[in-house]
Specification:
By secondary structure, this protein is of the alpha+beta class. It is built from two helices and four strands. Strand 2 (about 40-45) and strand 3 form a beta hairpin.
Length: about 90
């Protein structure tokens, strides 16, 4: 089986949210709920002081519980919403 590269955008509840703390909680949740080795995180400005946490990871294409994974991420305190932005097959 091949592998996939996944990009999930996580939006905090407010501009006052500690996105560094939120990003670490997201990383811990993804690594505990899905069979991934590493999660790369970035924080991007959205609008009016609101920042988004972007999580990137490689996973086996046999994994199909992305709805459950998104639900688990949304359970983190301070998370407003999640969105799978990109999902593509890794080549090479």
């Amino acid at each position: 089986m091949g592998t996939m590269i996944i990009h999930i955008r996580i939006m905090p509840e407010s501009i006052e949210a500690d996105v560094d703390k939120l990003s670490q909680a997201v990383k811990e949740k993804i690594t505990s709920e899905a069979p991934v080795d590493d999660v790369k995180l970035s924080i991007t400005d959205v609008a009016f002081g609101l920042k988004a946490v972007n999580a990137y990871f490689v996973i086996d294409e046999g994994f199909n519980d992305f709805d459950v994974l998104e639900e688990k991420i949304r359970e983190i305190e301070g998370v407003s919403s999640t969105e799978i932005v990109d999902m593509r097959r890794a080549l090479g």
